Automatic annotation (TrEMBL):
A GO term from the CC aspect: cytoplasm
Pfam families, alphabetized: Aldo_ket_red
Domain NADP-dependent oxidoreductase stretches: 19-310
InterPro entries in the cross-refs: AKR, Aldo-Keto_reductase, NAD(P)_OxRdtase_dom_sf, NADP_OxRdtase_dom
The keyword Oxidoreductase belongs to this UniProt entry's keyword annotation: yes
Keywords of the record: Oxidoreductase
Single GO molecular function: oxidoreductase activity
Protein name, UniProt field: Aryl-alcohol dehydrogenase-like predicted oxidoreductase
Keyword Manganese (UniProt): no
Cross-referenced CDD domains: AKR_AKR13A_13D
Length: 329
């Protein structure tokens, strides 16, 4: 297997597996949760050398961190563990909004450590930028967590280039997590150049376009799946028809490579740089194994150009969220 690890960040570097695992769907958002299947998937990931695990306190809410904690018990030393705070929810799932206040940062971290059953978090992200709290105040509290030994490295999620600069001036930011795939490339304009200037790694979530790029989705998802709601416009009506036509083009290219559309789409993300570590999410071992095989696909400049031509940046129909107000722009 080629390139089994990559390093996020240069000022505060963290070496992780070249492919990570997003654990969110094991607990919420994509149909009924199945804890046993989730734990089995995490165990298989570790066996395959996928040791960079991603969760957040709001997934479940709170239950996903507990699941991950159970799964890594006895194997903590193998894992690079990432979690997030900032999307505040009540135990019943009620969303209270984005909270970046220093006191909340401290309380959220302690609660996450307890649920995960660990003494430190390898990478702690602010999940969304709180536009009512100066980023310097939030990062100041996160920096205290590093100084206390509770957190090793700091990250941001869905932050603008300006916010990233301001945060990095308070304490080195190791990684930015944001959506990035063949279907979502707007960060290439200002954010990615800023990350590379400052020496910050990129952790793309939804590198398979929330499953669209796997080719497995042919119709609007079933009830109980959040993708069936207006919150995800790319899965609705004419938008879905347009986007599935793009997936067909990816499928044609994948056939030439002897791989699945999802594997080709993941290989494209991996080919964007050694500072890029995608975290495709799954709750099933079979899909995990399919994703893991993408690490062995090498794309030439001609291959990348063919994918760019098949899926032009502006060809995807629909915003990635129905409500973009929590995205820092």
């Amino acid at each position: 297997m080629t390139n089994s690890t990559r390093t996020l960040g240069t000022t505060s570097p963290l070496t992780v597996s070249s492919l990570g695992l997003g654990c969110m769907g094991m607990s919420e958002f994509y149909g009924a949760p199945d804890e046993a299947a989730g734990i089995a998937t995490i165990h298989r990931a570790l066996d395959l050398g996928i040791t960079f695990l991603d969760t957040a306190d709001m997934y479940g809410p709170f239950t996903n961190e507990q699941l991950v904690g159970k799964a890594i018990a006895g194997r903590r030393d193998e894992v690079q563990l990432a979690t997030k705070f900032g999307n505040e929810r009540l135990p019943d799932g009620t969303r209270l909004g984005v909270n970046g206040s220093p006191d909340y940062v401290r309380r959220a971290c302690d609660a996450s450590l307890q649920r995960l059953g660990v003494d430190h978090i390898d990478l702690y992200y602010q999940h969304r930028v709180d536009k009512t709290v100066p980023i310097e105040d939030t990062l100041g509290a996160m920096k205290e967590l590093v100084e206390a030994g509770k957190v090793r490295h700091l990250g941001l999620s869905e932050a603008s280039a300006e916010t990233i600069r301001r945060a990095h001036a308070v304490h080195p930011v190791t990684a930015l997590q944001t959506e990035y795939s063949l279907f979502t490339r707007d960060l290439e304009d200002a954010i990615l150049p800023t990350l590379r200037e400052l020496g910050i790694g990129l952790v793309p979530y939804s590198p398979l376009g929330r499953g669209l790029l796997t080719g497995a989705i042919t119709d609007t998802p079933a009830e109980g799946d959040s993708r069936a709601t207006a919150y995800f416009p790319r899965f609705q009506g004419d938008n879905l028809v347009t986007n599935l036509a793009l997936v067909d083009k990816v499928r044609e290219l994948a056939t030439q490579h002897g791989c699945t559309p999802g594997q080709l789409a993941l290989a494209w993300v991996l080919a964007q740089g050694e500072d890029v570590v995608p975290i495709p999410g799954t709750k099933r071992v079979a899909y995990l194994e399919e994703n893991a095989a993408a690490r062995d696909i090498t794309l030439s400049a001609d291959d990348l150009a063919a994918l760019d031509a098949a899926v032009p940046r502006d060809a995807v129909a629909g915003d990635r969220y129905g409500d973009m107000s929590t995205i820092d722009a």
